[in-house]
Amino acid sequence: AFQVSISLVSLPRPHGKSFAHRSELKQAKRIVVKLGSAVVTRGDECGLALGRLASIVEQVAMLQNQGREMMIVTSGAVAFGKQRLRHEILLSQSVRQALHSGQNQLKDMSVPVLEARACAAAGQSGLMALYEAMFTQYSICTAQILVTNLDFHDEQKRRNLNSTLHELLRMNIVPIINTNDAVVPPPVPNSDLQGVNVISIKDNDSLAARLAVEMKVDLLIALSDVQGLYDSPPGTDDAKLIDIFYPGDQQSITYGTKSRVGIGGMEAKVKAALWALQGGTSVIIANGTDPKVTGHVITDIVEGKKVGTFFSEVKPAGPTVEQQTEMARHAGRTLASLLPEQRAEIICCLAELLIEKKEEILNANKKDMELATTLGRLSQPLINRLSLSTAKLNSLAIGLRQLAVSSRNSVGRVLRRTRVANNLELEQITVPIGVLLVIFESRPDCLPQVSALAIASGNALLLKGGKEASNTNKILHQLTQEALSIHGVADAIQLVSTREEVEDLCRLDKMIDLIIPRGSSQLVREIQRAAKGIPVLGHSEGICHVYIDSDASIDKALDIVKDSKCDYPAACNAMETLLIHRDLLRTPVFDQIIDMLRTEQVKIHAGPRFASYLTFSPSEVKSLRTEYGDLECCIEVVDSMQEAVDHIHKYGSSHTDVIVTENEETAEQFLQQVDSACVFWNSSSRFADGYRFGLGAEVGISTARIHARGPVGLEGLLTTKWVLRGEGHTVADFSEQGSMKYLHENIPVPQGSFN
């Protein structure tokens, strides 16, 4: 078989360093895509996987048209040729048998073993014609290059090959390279190459690696029929996909059998990848056969997404995010097994540390604020959220102490007890959810809040903060781990500091049980789209309304509108739309509200109906479904309370909505009809907060309709399990012929009962 002997070929001087991180792959200019035999061939090993090949061609064409230089190292000539020769042989046999033996003998026809070189000779032209036809659809020209081992050992041939490839790339042509299987020696006998239905495909792994180094390629993408490199054979119980593989890690790998076709195997791929890496080419081994990802696997890799196994020479200083998750889960189980008083002690310790270390915290926050202001990348609302103060830290500490008290009544609480039958009792008890992932932007005060809630509920926690708050997050996480260490569970809360993309974190569906986003509506929507297999708790927008009814008190209306909009306009519970009853237009109530908003420098946008009443109106609103997050709001006019409710249902986000009225009947109708997580009467929308509700802290406000809704505190981070205690009971005991009967008697549960 064709093989470039890595040990014998002298390594050229490296053309440069390989990329250290996946995020840098976007910079790759020259790329080789190696298509393994299992990717190119059909499952029956006879013929090509045309749909799969078409999607790969589309991605290569897209990258080529972006200005990159693309090359393909492909298998498939033998498979394509085998299909053609088989058809010819069957056709020939059928004609002969029809002439000599009659139609009744056709069923006995058999296909002889086909010699691989003959198959390659018959299939190579057809394979190239197929590539050419596919790339023509994208106005891209291709060129065929067939090589043998001698082309790399003969210096003149090697230089000619190099020159040809460079000239093709210069002319924006995609070279399609394959071994000249029609003339290479036969493969070494191997058990997986025996039999009629198996194709002998040559090893293109070392060819791709050799070409990558020879052509000073930035990235080599090796597509196979597995997700990447595993630490043990794929399919075994403990096999784990390796995200990043480093030189020297070979001893930790146990290789399995080779694929259904091909003679390279994973061990050959790893050796070739490491050789290319030494030569300055980054390498990724990924799955090119999975129908869920084939259509975007190549472009995802180039965009830096976590796909397959990335070969890197730069080992990170700390653990990978997968290792952090495992550490958190392990320590989280210990945390959940602590006594409620011990978890409360950890939270109180964290509260004390926030006050004791406030100077260090504020200094770190000052660095983040100065950097954010200098770079100018953050909007004013985000800078406001980034800022910490002594008052904020004091408020955090108070909330944490409040939470510590309520945490004593959390994990292991008995919710229900049932006597199923004599000596058979069932309990429903509260338990932690598992591993939480909280992703937050700008708000470092979120870190101690959600950490305390995770501790109180016995959950492991992964935190991913924005880089704009990295200094503040780092010191707050250190203090959190210091508090956790008093009971030996410091690893239960981990801060992800690697270059993990949010989308990649959302794919850890086998490791993370719940995602809680804290940030902009755009962030929340992105996470909800990316988290296919993990539940997401949160709200995408905070479009909160305050409705001023015709029976409203002027003083209450002024205070509530001012507080709802101006107290903290960047908050998700700040008012964004002010609805005013039509009867209040051109009255002192309306005039005073407008004057107050102008005094507070609130920019007013007029809704369509409000604008129609004015000769000179403020700028008309672009959308009635806008979250400003700043000193801006929309004002719209409605004819009645019912119209206000309809407006809220149409344009709101089911977060928090308020009515200001002295009419109790109107207020109660509003409270019952508005389908939002929080609905208030004569009180500011800013009360929609876990601390103000007495929850101590919150992980966020959920507008979902299942599990938890509104400010989510301790209760929202617990789930339940059922515990059944019997004495050898079986279901057969309760059949018609059995001796036992179901009782299903509810047993009173005293308040504060714990399992």
Automatic annotation (TrEMBL):
Pfam families: AA_kinase, Aldedh. Pathway: Amino-acid biosynthesis; L-proline biosynthesis; L-glutamate 5-semialdehyde from L-glutamate: step 1/2; Amino-acid biosynthesis; L-proline biosynthesis; L-glutamate 5-semialdehyde from L-glutamate: step 2/2. It is found in: Mitochondrion matrix. InterPro entries: AceGlu_kinase-like_sf, Ald_DH/histidinol_DH, Ald_DH_C, Ald_DH_N, Aldehyde_DH_dom, Asp/Glu/Uridylate_kinase, G-glutamylP_reductase_CS, G5K_ProBA. It comes from the Eukaryota. Its EC number is 2.7.2.11, 1.2.1.41. Gene3D superfamilies: Acetylglutamate kinase-like, Aldehyde Dehydrogenase, Chain A, domain 1, Aldehyde Dehydrogenase, Chain A, domain 2. One of its GO terms (cellular component) is mitochondrial matrix. It catalyses: L-glutamate + ATP = L-glutamyl 5-phosphate + ADP; L-glutamate 5-semialdehyde + phosphate + NADP(+) = L-glutamyl 5-phosphate + NADPH + H(+). GO terms for biological process: L-proline biosynthetic process. Its main location: mitochondrion. Residues 29-287 form the Aspartate/glutamate/uridylate kinase domain. Residues 320-603 form the Aldehyde dehydrogenase domain. Bifunctional enzyme that converts glutamate to glutamate 5-semialdehyde, an intermediate in the biosynthesis of proline, ornithine and arginine. PANTHER family: DELTA-1-PYRROLINE-5-CARBOXYLATE SYNTHASE, GLUTAMATE SEMIALDEHYDE DEHYDROGENASE. NCBIfam families: P5CS, PRK00197.1, proA, proB. In the N-terminal section; belongs to the glutamate 5-kinase family. In the C-terminal section; belongs to the gamma-glutamyl phosphate reductase family. This is Delta-1-pyrroline-5-carboxylate synthase. It comes from Oreochromis niloticus.
